[in-house]
């Protein structure tokens, strides 16, 4: 199907431009006329030279940044709340969007809506920008006639989710940078500095101390196998990444991650905060509980959590409560289970879920600060031990020579 760029005038007399998909130009004009547009010009959009290289390799097209989606949702919510029609609102936002990836997606959504497609269905065509959760909430807003309220709620949810993601990323950056610098300094000493002392030690004419010999052996091994040692972690990372894409690999790796001493506790809190906020937002937006749990499970980001949510979904399908299977998973704390159980009993589940999410957002913040404050001294201590050991090993032969000279 070809794509055509058009210039037309709407019923209000305003000149608009856009693109539309159709097999031939004649059908594109018919589509525009069916939308009560006065067609001024229609021309086919030619494919890029080379057969659409970027379209063949979709990873080159980039992804829609979550920050762009948050801003778009908040602005669209404001426009719809002010009574601006959705198509006109998308036209206004298109002029402000700078992302070369996001702009054509919004243009495609607007074109589909103009042609009579539901907003949720139009967004569902672009999974790189609009997640299943996003589409489900928009669909609920359309069905209930409360799209403005849903967009406000969705904007608040996305902002909270982005803030939570930022906290986790912030916690990871500092340790990774410090560890990287420490590793680079250690490798530089072993590969570039230590070998220069080897010829000096060889002129001593006596056997070197055992720690020094071990250090020189490690230095030789690193120099002779540097390429292998550099590529091996990258290859291992790629293999694990490929395995992680499989069902079994994701289950095993996610299971180990949430069992880590410090990081695992933080990941559990992140999972609880994300689960409760997402489920609470969906239920409050009018999404049926079974559909809401299905959406939450698929967007949980952890296979162990996903499995627990699916079990809860099956329990509800069979007429049971949601709290029991969540308790059996061992991931959700007792307080969370009790509050969900109370919410079910009183009929205020969405309120309880929101309160849990707010509480665990603060818990994540506390866990991030605790982890950062714990990792910093650990890395400094490890770095001190490594560098100190290298220095001691290099000075041992000198001390040995000094004692021999004193004896003579």
Distance between the termini: 94 Å
Number of domains: 2
DSSP strand content: 5-15%
| Largest pleated sheet | 3 strands, antiparallel
C-alpha Rg (nearest Å): 30 Å
User: How many beta-strand runs?
Assistant: 3
Number of helices: 17
Tell me the name of the CATH class of the largest domain: Mainly Alpha
Order of helices and strands: EEHEHHHHHHHHHHHHHHHH
Rough outline: extended
Q: Roughly what is the average pLDDT, rounded to an integer? A: 79
> Looking across the biggest beta sheet, what order are the strands in?
2-1-3
Oligomer: single chain
Question: Ranges with pLDDT <50 over ≥5 residues?
Answer: 47-60
Structural class: mainly alpha
CATH superfamily of the largest domain: Type II secretion system (T2SS), domain F
CATH topology of the largest domain: Receptor-associated Protein
Instruction: Please give the share of residues in helix.
Output: over 70%
CATH architecture name of the largest domain? Up-down Bundle
Lay out the secondary structure:
Elements: E1 2-9, E2 15-22, H1 25-34, E3 38-44, H2 49-56, H3 66-81, H4 86-96, H5 102-114, H6 119-124, H7 132-144, H8 147-202, H9 210-224, H10 226-244, H11 247-257, H12 263-284, H13 289-298, H14 303-317, H15 323-329, H16 334-346, H17 349-407
Antiparallel strand pairs: 1-2, 1-3
Helix pairs in contact: 3-4, 3-8, 4-5, 7-8, 8-9, 8-12, 8-17, 9-17, 12-13, 12-17, 13-14, 14-15, 15-16, 16-17
